[in-house]
Design a protein that fits this description.
The chain is α/β, with parallel strands linked by helices and about 325 residues long. It folds into two domains: about 180 residues, Rossmann fold (3-Layer(aba) Sandwich), CATH 3.40.50.450; about 110 residues, Phosphofructokinase domain (Rossmann fold, 3-Layer(aba) Sandwich). Helices cover about 40% and strands about 20% of the residues. The strands form two sheets. Strands 3-2-1-4-5-10-11 form a seven-stranded mixed sheet, sandwiched between helices. Strands 7-8-6-9 form a four-stranded parallel sheet, with helices on both faces. The radius of gyration is 22 Å and the shape is elongated. The protein starts with a strand and ends in an 8-residue tail after the last helix. The structure holds 6-O-phosphono-beta-D-fructofuranose. The site of 6-O-phosphono-beta-D-fructofuranose (F6P) has 10 residues, from loops.
Length: about 325
């Protein structure tokens, strides 16, 4: 029987992580399980940085961005010795189950720990990248899209006033989800994503067509595009000197801010389900939400399989005037 759950947030923070911490803590306490917050992800686990969480200590955090538990990337946890240190600290603290909130790196660490030691671990997908298999959305993705939309709307105002072409670089690591859906929501004229090849060639083709129309444009670029936003823009400046081309890298503002209602709801749903899964004996799984239903996805597939741009998305984008060059 589980008496004490440890909870941590790891990797890039995402808006809504606090709502998930709150949901896990409250659900556990309701089921007479105590909760310990592990500070700064796996790093805090190795350093033995533990803080008890209570119903009171998670009050007033549902609306806040970042993570009250702080986050980190921890190279030491990638090796056997690091994980051994972690499990010893868990035993010392009498923690008998873990909830880990993060992205694929977080689940990879959890999967290794679960393979080596018999400890129940349940994951909650929290990353702005939305690149986790087994869930339609990850916590933080929706807020991130809204932040981008509001930034790009402003860029458009100045872009059209000066008749400029803007390359807007958004995050997403190696995945194009953020670029795809923010591009759709912003009415971007072209979207460049790492899942497709020859993005430089396709930008060239787009600009050659645009030259005849001579209008301002927004080109949404995922940071993972192989050719690189700056390099593409520099080349285009030379080849299309008739255009006034600018680059705007949105950067870390995409990870911050108060979570959207959608992220708060998703985080609450996944947090509650994570505790129920542990109570019913589940382990080595991530809680996802797919087609309106909760789903238990084994860590092994959540980290191995990939979601990517589908034909349906490309069809919709094309229909409303966004040029999504296909291979
Ligand atoms: O995974 C979230 C993310 O924001 C990615 O989109 C980005 O590539 C990465 O984290 C940046 O990480 P760091 O905080 O280590 O610079």
């Amino acid at each position: 029987m589980i008496k004490k759950i440890g909870i941590l947030t790891s990797g890039g923070d995402a808006p809504g992580m606090n709502a998930a911490i709150r949901a896990v803590t409250r659900t556990a306490i309701l089921n007479e399980i105590s909760v310990v917050g592990i500070m700064a992800g796996y790093q805090g686990l190795l350093n033995g940085e533990f803080n008890p969480l209570t119903g009171q200590s998670v009050r007033g955090i549902i609306q806040t961005g970042g993570t009250i538990l702080r986050s980190a990337r921890c190279p030491e946890f990638r090796n056997v010795e690091g994980r051994k240190k972690g499990i010893e600290n868990l035993k010392k603290e009498e923690i008998d189950a873990l909830v880990v909130i993060g992205g694929d790196g977080t689940f990879r660490g959890a999967n290794e720990l679960a393979k080596e030691y018999d400890i129940p671990i349940v994951g909650i997908p929290g990353t702005i990248d939305n690149d986790i298999y087994g869930t339609e959305y990850t916590i933080g993705y929706d807020t991130c899209l809204n932040t981008i939309v509001s930034a790009v709307d402003k860029i458009r105002d100045t872009g059209s006033s000066h008749n400029r072409i803007f390359f807007v670089e958004v995050m997403g690591h190696e995945s194009g989800f953020i670029a795809m859906n923010s591009g759709l929501a912003c009415g971007a004229d072209i979207i460049l994503i790492p899942e497709q090849k020859n993005q430089l060639e396709k930008t060239r083709h787009f600009l050659a067509e645009r030259a005849r129309q001579n209008k301002s444009s927004v080109i949404m670029v995922a940071e993972g595009v192989k050719e690189g936003t700056m390099a593409i823009a520099e080349k285009m400046k030379v080849e299309f000197s008739q255009f006034d081309i600018r680059v705007s890298v949105l950067g870390y503002i995409q990870r911050g801010g108060s979570p959207s209602a959608r992220d708060r709801i998703l985080a609450s749903e996944l947090g509650v389900e994570a505790v129920h899964a542990l109570i019913t004996g589940e382990k080595g799984i991530m809680i996802g939400r797919l087609y309106g239903k909760m789903r238990y996805e084994p860590f092994t597939t959540a980290i191995k399989l990939h979601k990517c741009a589908d034909a349906e998305f490309l069809r919709i984008a094309e229909s409303i005037g966004t040029y999504t060059p296909t291979d």
